[in-house]
Design a protein that fits this description.
three-stranded antiparallel β-sheet
């Protein structure tokens, strides 16, 4: 087995190979270990909040407008802080995976939050 580099996302040393990709068991990040480090940031997509700030994994955001939630009479109120977000390639613009206190795990659109 060849020596694989640590994960570029979380620096985990326990990466393993799956087909032609390297996979991190801690954060589930997949990448091509044969491409140089210079190529790692070239294809990244940029996710911006409602006011144009660039969002990153682990950021804390604030909901800017009240959101309706199925099964909840009150919904998520404007001003609610959401900590430790994770950016994903979501469906219908829902590109933030997070846990909202009092509601649990859900996906939000980046257009309804601002970096806070």
């Amino acid at each position: 087995m060849e020596n694989l580099p640590p994960c570029p996302e979380c620096a985990c040393e326990y990466t393993y190979e799956m087909n032609s990709l390297a996979v991190c068991p801690e954060c589930a990040h997949e990448w091509n270990p044969e491409s140089g480090a210079e190529d790692a940031g070239a294809g990244e997509r940029v996710v911006k909040d409602a006011v144009g700030n660039v969002l990153r994994d682990g950021d804390t955001v604030v909901v800017v407008k009240t959101l309706k939630v199925k099964g909840s009479p009150s919904g998520i109120k404007a001003g609610t802080k959401v900590r430790n977000i994770r950016l994903i390639d979501g469906v219908d613009g829902h590109d933030i995976d997070c846990k909202v206190e009092g509601f649990g795990a859900m996906r939000l659109k980046s257009g309804v939050v601002k970096k806070g």
